[in-house]
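User: Predict Glycosyl hydrolase family 26's structure from this.
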Amino acid sequence: MCSGQSQEMCKRSVCEEPLHRINATLGIISRKAGIGGAGLALVLGMGACAQPAAVSAESPERATARVNGLLGIRPSGAACEVTVKLIPSCGAWWGIAPEIFTGRRPGRALERAEGRMGRPADIMHVYHRGPELFPTPEERKIARDPAGRRLLLINWKPSSDRTWAEIAGGALDQRIDRLADYVLKSFPERFFLTVHHEPENDVRAAPGSGMTAEDYSAMFRHVVLRLRQRGVRNAVTVMTYMGAPNWAAEPWFERLYPGDDVVDWVAMDPYADDRVQTFDGLVNKTREEFAGWPGFYRWMQSRFPGKPIMIAEWGVFERRGRPGFKESFFSSVREEMRRYPQIKALVYFDSPRAPRGDTRFDTTPGGLRTFSDLARDPYLRATPVPEQ
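Assistant:
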């Protein structure tokens, strides 16, 4: 990483400068929010790029008020409300991608998952590719269920054979227009839309590949702007990162972002690997080999202070020899989530065959109990899902 530099210069470029920028930005945020710098400052110990401290020392109530101000949330009354960009003024949305890779239909999978966790979901995460039209009739039924309305988080990969540069250049405009017409005719409700999530591991940095970080940014912008030009104004857009330090260390990483005008929420998809023990370790993963990286929540706080954060996928894998790990992890989420007020939605990925293991929440009695307790926590039930 530091070829050709002295050890001291390497340490400065990899460790000190990124953290310096983050702290400087957070200082600006603090002043704009009208609070003392100590309330928001991150204690980022330098040393040999040691892991930074978890969160600020301010109370959860004060942190929530500060973050809501930055997000433009100004409730008109005592009741919890939802902004036009689907940001809840109280707590956070609770969602799920249910029984993925089981072959069950979305409606049945959701019904079973909600029965297991003991409450209806606020968000249903579904996946579409290529020319598929959405929301499907089944997904519309899920969203409009009179027994409990739900928000849809629709994850769309526009193509598997066209490059990002080709899409940005108009190669799929007919497909985008057809989708726009379908949405306009069938689904006026607001929904979350993420376009080709987790782009990091698809980047090919070589110029002319059509799959550079700049190409991704241009593709995302083109798709969103084209949908809007065709009249789709109810799609609340989400930029979804993988949430892994190794990708964040790439020199092109910052260039993935499509721009504030086409991104309403920012999101990450972190999973509890063998080195993650608690919720903080999940949303703020750091690694010794990527010493300048402060963790995704910290980075998003600094980079996107005016954007709500979504945990669009998260999962806890089984651990050999630790049958109680899921139980302890879900307990940590409940204990710690209020310390992260910019996280406005948590969407669990429930699957017996996730790419790296089993993320079902009910593989042990303790895991089921603590997951159900988490799902029913008042913080995750504070704001009702809106009608439109």
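The CA atoms of residues 204 and 211 lie 5 Å apart.
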